[in-house]
Amino acid sequence: MPATETFRFPKRRQHVPGARQQVRKALANWGITGELADPVLLLANELVTNAVTHCRVSCAQVEVRLTLREAHLVLEVSDPDRDRLPRLRDSAPDEEGGRGLALVAALAEAWGSRQEPYTKCVWAVFALTEQPGRPPRAPSTP
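User: That's the sequence. What structure does it adopt?
Assistant: Structure tokens below.
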């Protein structure tokens, strides 16, 4: 049975560091630290920042869920702006933003987004150990 940690916070920039701290604490409780934790923390920060920045629903909450499944960790970030799914795009060198999902694609084993009844969810899967010749399964609904 997978281990899961879920937490919610108001959609405000000031809560992003607290969300990152909660992710760090959950990972440490599972013994995931150092080089294994670094990409998860970086992408958690990116996805939470995206949710806070781009969600157009006022007084919204952002939900972060971490699920540990065998040798994989699934990070999910949800917000109530369900009709605005993120998309990967090419950013010009002089643009200040727009590279976050490219970073997600580069550091996660798999990633994607889905619409749920009242929210959208952006998810990323991380392999916690090297498994030569065995690609990670991308969950249809992490």
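The domain at 3-127 is CATH 3.30.565.10 (Heat Shock Protein 90).
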